[in-house]
Amino acid sequence: MSYTAANHYVFEGDELTGSFDTNRLSGVAAAQLVLSGATLKSTEVTRTDLGYEIRTIVEQVHDGNSTHLLAVVPRVNVENEPVHFSSYAVLFTRRGNIAGDRFVHGALESYDVRALSGTALLVDG
């Protein structure tokens, strides 16, 4: 039996919601992420051995703290019905100091892992 790759994904979990389409008119996958009510800009979707990696910058301060988001969503094959999946996202925060890293006490990076659940389906057009 042969299945078809899903082309529309919707997911949510722990103050993060998102959706993305794998085949847009432009030929590039497009994603939209909302974290704690704020829509994140400049998302980038890449297909890797891990699935689809969706990356964006949440906050970036020159010579200061920066936070990046990586959501990893599995590739899903479907028949007729939507397929549910579990996944995760990681918020990477880097602590900085205008005077340099050596003036920051403790870990310079922290990682906040968030569980996601979602649905993948095949959308025509």
Description:
The chain has about 120 residues and is mainly β. Helices cover about 0% and strands about 60% of the residues. The model has no long low-confidence stretch (mean pLDDT about 90).
Task: Summarize this structure briefly.
This protein is mainly beta and 125 residues long. It has no helices and eleven strands.
Please render the helix and strand layout as text.
Elements: E1 4-5, E2 8-13, E3 16-21, E4 30-35, E5 38-40, E6 44-48, E7 51-60, E8 66-73, E9 77-78, E10 83-94, E11 109-121
Antiparallel strand pairs: 1-9, 2-3, 2-11, 3-4, 4-5, 6-7, 7-8, 8-10, 10-11
- What characterizes the major β-sheet? 9 strands, antiparallel
Averaged pLDDT: 89
What ranges have pLDDT less than 50 throughout 5 or more consecutive residues? none
Counted beta strands: 11
Task: Tell me the helix content.
Answer: under 10%
- Rg over CA atoms: 17 Å
First-to-last CA distance: 24 Å
Q: Name the helix and strand elements from N-terminus to C-terminus, one letter apiece.
A: EEEEEEEEEEE
Overall shape: elongated
Tally of helical segments: 0
| Class based on secondary structure composition and strand pairing | mainly beta
Instruction: Give the DSSP E fraction (strand runs of 2 or more residues).
Output: over 45%
How is the largest sheet built, in terms of strand order? 5-4-3-2-11-10-8-7-6
Keywords:
mainly beta; elongated; nine-stranded antiparallel β-sheet; single chain; 125 residues
